[in-house]
Design a protein that fits this description.
Distance between the termini: 44 Å
Radius of gyration: 21 Å
Number of strands: 15
Bound molecules: pyridoxal-5'-phosphate
Number of helices: 13
CATH superfamily of the largest domain: Type I PLP-dependent aspartate aminotransferase-like (Major domain)
Strand content: 5-15%
Shape: globular
Largest sheet: 7 strands, mixed
Length: 403
């Protein structure tokens, strides 16, 4: 059975269950290629593990620091997949990667401390800093499109005596870029020089295209990584966003204890549900073949979409991602703000995508949109045809120049 063929996407169910800019929130007839959440049901192994757990009918308290099987599975998982050497005792299951980021910020930022937040980048870096009453300082992280390189040359200029932390999104959402060992070493050396912490979000590290090698910051060794506070989540690679499951982890024991304190698990006000942890354990231990098939599927989707946008759609330029199932598209030549363009597409061609701009990715992402590729090939083709029709309609209506 192919888990990712066209028939696998059940729009009737998605219309009832998929929120956050997706099927349940758009008008009938609109195709949402919006939030980073897949249109496929989860791996059968995850469903089976959940059903077995539910069958017993017991939903008792779990250990405050999470099920030991979760912590051990995670330690083995990151060792095998990313060569990270993390003691299972230094892994804490929490209710989402978003929560994990808020915990890191709360544990280590004091009011008025500054945190460097790359712009563009996922809004949760800024929001977690603000929730801790810190001050997010945007670093305009331009990329050289041809070479897939982020410009880090001016990073140090943004550091003041109030800077406490740098946010690192590796792989990067929305660029879909992975950092080289040299870049990670460079970021680390700046953090060492100025005694800064690193909020290291690796939620996208499972979604790496076959032509790319992922490097975790832990390749620099645990001694240097004692200033690294890491975040992972199961929403993206396993389609478990609604179960709200992720974790925080650290190689340094003392730093990890501060995360535990900030998480409120010891008072039972924080933590992840038993069902969510069971799903994540099955994802790590029994859903890897399914994940590999998913990556094959989105590799085909990526290659098709990048080619189609760059060759068939006038005025738009798509960056080819190395990781993530997100496509970052330059719409500057359309001469419209991201949100106006997105609204136009929704009204005129029934396609929903995510606008660049302050709200989701930061000011530098203005003039761009983000498209989610984690759907069937059929829906993606239809969505991109609508995008093409929308752009052509705009060209005609506004007399836009194009080649
Ligand atoms: C970089 C990044 N971090 C964190 C999250 C949040 O994930 P979760 O659903 O686990 O809160 C997302 C979701 O899009 C993301 O892209």
């Amino acid at each position: 059975m192919n888990y990712f063929d066209d028939k696998a996407v059940n729009i009737d169910i998605l219309k009832k269950k998929a929120y956050n800019l997706r099927w349940a929130e758009v008008a009938d007839g609109v195709i949402p290629l919006t939030a980073a959440d897949m249109d496929f049901p989860c791996a059968p192994a995850i469903k089976k593990a959940l059903l077995e757990y539910v069958e017993d009918g017991y939903f008792s308290y779990t250990p405050k620091r999470g099920l030991s099987e979760f912590n051990e599975s995670f330690s083995t998982y990151v060792k095998n997949k990313k060569h990270e050497d993390i003691n299972p005792n230094n892994v804490l299951a929490v209710d989402s990667a978003a929560r994990a980021m808020f915990i890191v910020a709360k544990a280590f930022l004091k009011p008025e401390d500054e945190m460097i937040v790359f712009d563009p980048c996922d809004f949760l870096f800024r929001e977690s800093c603000l929730a801790a009453k810190g001050i997010p300082v945007s670093y305009p992280a331009a990329i050289d499109v041809e070479n897939r390189k982020m410009d880090l040359s001016k990073l140090e200029d943004y550091i003041t005596n109030r800077t406490k932390m740098i946010g690192l999104c590796n792989p990067h959402n929305p660029y879909g870029l992975v950092y080289t060992k040299e870049e990670l070493g460079y970021i680390m050396s700046i953090c060492e020089k100025h005694d800064l912490l690193i909020m290291n979000d690796e939620i996208w590290s499972d979604i790496i295209y076959p032509d790319t090698q992922f490097n975790s910051i832990y390749c620099l060794g645990n001694e240097r990584c004692k200033r690294v506070l890491s975040v992972f989540g199961f929403s993206k690679s396993f389609g478990l966003a609604g179960l709200r499951i992720g974790c925080v982890y650290a190689s340094d024991d003392k730093m990890f204890e501060k995360l535990v304190d900030a998480s409120e698990v010891m008072s039972t006000a924080g933590g992840a549900t038993s069902l969510s942890q069971i799903a994540a354990i099955a994802a790590m231990n029994d859903a890897q073949d399914w994940l590999n098939e998913f990556i094959n599927h989105i590799t085909n989707n990526r290659d098709f979409a990048v080619d189609y946008i760059n060759k068939e759609i006038p005025l738009l330029k798509a960056y080819k991602p190395q990781a993530t199932f997100l496509l970052y598209v330059d719409i500057n030549d359309v001469n419209m703000s991201g949100s106006d363009f997105v609204e136009y597409l929704k009204q005129e061609v029934q396609l929903a995508i995510v606008p660049g701009g302050h709200q989701y990715f930061g000011n530098q992402s203005e003039g761009h949109v983000r498209i989610c590729l984690a759907t069937s090939r059929k829906l993606l083709e239809e969505g991109l045809l609508r995008l093409k029709n929308g752009v052509n309609k705009l060209i005609e209506e506004r007399g836009l120049k194009h080649e």
